[in-house]
Design brief:
By secondary structure, the protein is of the alpha/beta class. It has 2 domains: 98 residues, no CATH class; 246 residues, Aldolase class I (TIM Barrel). The protein is built from 16 helices and 12 strands. The chain has a 9-stranded mixed sheet. A 3-stranded antiparallel sheet has the order 10-11-12, with helices on one face. Strand 11 and strand 12 form a beta hairpin. Helix 8 runs parallel beside helix 11 and helix 13 packs across helix 14. Bound molecules: iron/sulfur cluster. Iron/sulfur cluster binds next to loops.
């Protein structure tokens, strides 16, 4: 495979030279140094080697032994012990790219937003909210065939693969993605031709379906021939008008877009076929913090832009990562600057093992207030709650009821599941002590939930 050299470029703006006179000067200050060389394990790796998808994939860290080999004495022994304990309660296996490891501030690992998303530490974990569930969105209930979720009338989510280039601690699909952990035995959705055939048969049999999201797992882990085959089969169905490939890759391993020519060419062929057929083929990605965007991301997005590939971003709102207006404004401006459209900000799903990452609904609504109006409307994300129990995404403001004392919000979803009420719960740690005690008493808990449900009127 031909590899393009990725020597660091001289950037117009550097982190130490913010543009003067700009209201938000930092959004153009993309990191452009050899940041990975401060880690003992990567100190001797030059840019040509580090900045390739092959190096990144082969050297991804999947256990604490490899983490030690990479970081050595950059962190104290107590940090490794904290990670070992954290993994015991984590719903997701460990997998992090050298690129992400290099971007973490190892002088302050407990505060770093990238460490927070990918390496669990027991000292920060919190007890699960009593109402959260492993498959909190009820995806398996809405799956007519394994690995296809059909919830919205004209849209379905196809999960052809159950692996990813990295594993996020907070994955909504922790019931299926990655290998088993101490706390979760995964549903297996590996890449199998028979399962895919069953999915294509179902999609073709449902004329109301026009829009297919190909996700997983992560489409970065599909072979180029599978990217092309899946795209072509879907585009050739008369009912299908839009497809979206979902990948976190641009945020965690952007090198692949630049050096894996076969993968990008396969994606480009599907995009071009879609264009010829007057159908829409785009990529959806997932950045959560401005530090995830470097000049390597900018170069990868340059390739996508040259090929006319639209990229949209779905961000997750997370405590200690992006739960303040300044960080979210910077993320939105930085994404827009490299031609990624900020599309959604999701309130954190209610999945086990990551209660430390959730925010209250009120906190997120306040951030939204500051993001809206900060830049152009088409680059302003909608803040949404993906409701527990399968009601689908709701505008976060559209609750029928929200009690800030008990932390209970009630939503309805007339187009998806008419007549049903859906709940969202603030983390207990954001409530006052009296309310926290009430949540520990089963009868009180039931009373609070029933009161919230009964307080919503004509829905
Ligand atoms: S990349 Fe997406 S599917 Fe994979 S672990 Fe992260 S959130 Fe889950």
């Amino acid at each position: 495979m031909e590899l393009e050299t990725l020597a660091p470029r001289v950037s117009l703006y550097s982190a130490s030279q913010p543009e003067k006179g700009n209201r938000s000067p930092d959004h153009r200050a993309l990191r452009n140094d050899e940041f990975w060389k401060s880690l003992p394990g990567y100190a001797g790796i030059n840019s040509d080697e580090f900045q390739t998808h092959i190096f990144q994939t082969r050297n991804s860290v999947t256990n604490v032994r490899q983490l030690r080999d990479t970081l050595k004495d950059r962190v104290p022994e107590s940090f490794y012990e904290d990670v070992v304990e954290g993994i015991k309660h984590a719903p997701m296996a460990l997998r992090i790219s050298p690129y992400l490891l290099g971007l973490i501030d190892w002088d302050e690992p407990y505060l770093d937003p990238i460490r927070t998303q990918f390496l669990p530490v027991a000292s920060q974990q919190l007890p699960n909210h009593p109402e959260l569930r492993l498959d909190s969105l009820h995806e398996q209930k809405d799956s007519p065939v394994p690995g296809l979720i059909h919830r919205y009338p004209d849209k379905a989510l196809f999960l052809p693969i159950d692996s990813c280039p990295v594993y996020c601690r907070f994955c909504t699909r922790s019931y299926a993605i990655g290998s088993d952990t101490d706390t979760v035995e995964k549903l297996k959705l590996s890449a199998r031709a028979q399962r895919w055939d069953n999915t294509f048969t179902y999609i073709a049999s449902r004329p109301e379906l026009e829009d297919i999201v190909i996700s997983g797992g992560d489409t970065y882990n599909l072979k180029p021939e599978h990217i092309q085959m899946i795209g072509e089969r879907l585009l050739r169905m008369p009912n299908i008008r839009r497809i979206r490939y979902a990948t976190k890759g641009l945020a965690v391993l952007p090198q692949k877009i630049i050096t894996d020519h076969a993968w990008l060419d396969a994606l480009t062929r599907v995009v071009e076929l879609g264009r010829q057929m007057h159908k829409d083929v785009v990529v959806h990605t997932h950045f959560n913090h401005p530090n995830e965007i470097t000049t390597v991301t900018e170069r990868a997005m340059g390739k996508m832009t040259e090929r006319g590939i639209t990229v949209r971003c779905q961000t997750v709102l997370q405590r200690g990562v992006n739960d303040n207006s300044e960080t979210m404004q910077l993320l939105v401006r930085r994404l827009s600057y490299i031609n990624i459209h900020p599309y959604y900000v999701y309130f954190h799903d209610m999945v086990p093992g990551v209660e430390d990452l959730r925010t209250s609904l009120e906190a997120g609504l306040n951030i939204e207030k500051h993001v809206r109006g900060h830049t152009a409307g088409f680059n302003t994300p909608s803040f949404v709650v993906d409701t527990m129990g399968g009601g689908g995404k709701r505008d976060a403001h559209s609750f029928e009821h929200y009690d800030r004392e008990t932390g209970i919000a009630v939503y309805t979803s007339p187009s998806v599941k008419p007549g049903v009420k859906f709940l969202y719960f603030d983390p207990l740690s954001t409530l006052d002590k009296t309310q926290q005690v009430r949540w520990q008493i089963p009868d009180e808990r039931r009373l609070m939930i029933d009161t919230a449900l009964n307080s919503t009127g004509g829905w």
